[in-house]
Known about the structure:
- By secondary structure, the chain is mainly β.
- The chain is globular and about 60 Å long.
Amino acid sequence: xxxxxxxxxxxxxxxxxxxxxxxxxxxxxxxxxxxxxxxxxxxxxxxxxxxxxxxxxxxxxxxxxxxxxxxxxxxxxxxxxxxxxxxxxxxxxxxxxxxxxxxxxxxxxxxxxxxxxxxxxxxxxxxxxxxxxxxxxxxxxxxxxxxxxxxxxxxxxxxxxxxxxxxxxxxxxxxxxxxxxxxxxxxxxxxxxxxxxxxxxxxxxxxxxxxxxxxxxxxxxxxxxxxxxxxxxxxxxxxxxxxxxxxxxxxxxxxxxxxxxxxxxxxxxxxxxxxxxxxxxxxxxxxxxxxxxxxxxxxxxxxxxxxxxxxxxxxxxxxxxxxxxxxxxxxxxxxxxxxxxxxxxxxxxxxxxxxxx
Length: 357
């Protein structure tokens, strides 16, 4: 690994003239954060888009050429391999359920879910779909047994599949209570984060395309869904919602236009009512972002976002964003004070906060 440190000065401007207390709060937002940035050596040239940081030691990656990688020792050593019989499948999402159990989700046809129960030594196909138009984008789990995955619309309805036995078996959710898809509406299998689940059976799916950027919301473990329009950039097949996160009753979505990744307009929005109404950051990220994550292990209001045009951080719950790096990355995940990011060409990097002496 190559290590170097940077001091990130997050001067979040909070305009207020009401009281000295407001000025004090503004000053407290300008605290320095010190991070170690590590370039992690993983022997692969795959385009990594799936990432799950399970705990302090276990991290899994997935990507192109049927590739997966995992570490059990916080990145000191890695198992990097391809799933036997998977050809050149694109594994756009990975879900870790235990220290030895993980699932891989493929995009395109054949659509498959693979499962290992021995930390990647052997794999079994637990779900397969060969139907025309099926293209899975992401999966997420409420606990170590119950989870869902979704595909782009088939016959004008999203295809949502569900498991209640840790990914061993899957069944399609009835589409009767599913909104009718807009023309060209689809998900984006860019980071495995355009699907997010929350407490008490809540779930959200982010979509985009030429007809609008909508979010689908469920309150009953994916059984029924409602669609809500968002202010995220839309109008072409490359525009829409690419990532969702949820923390302390606030929903955040990120995206934009992956074909024009320096465009900063309408790339992020926030909601306090589950996706019905939205507000925009006062100062947004510096371009298209394919992943966004809260980092409460660092500080309650800290978030990170990444995309092909760089990495950004917010220290005030997503209202203001500052650029950290122009490095191109596809996905990020957070566990406590560790922030992992992955990208094309086998890129794996890690940010970890260092407590000042």
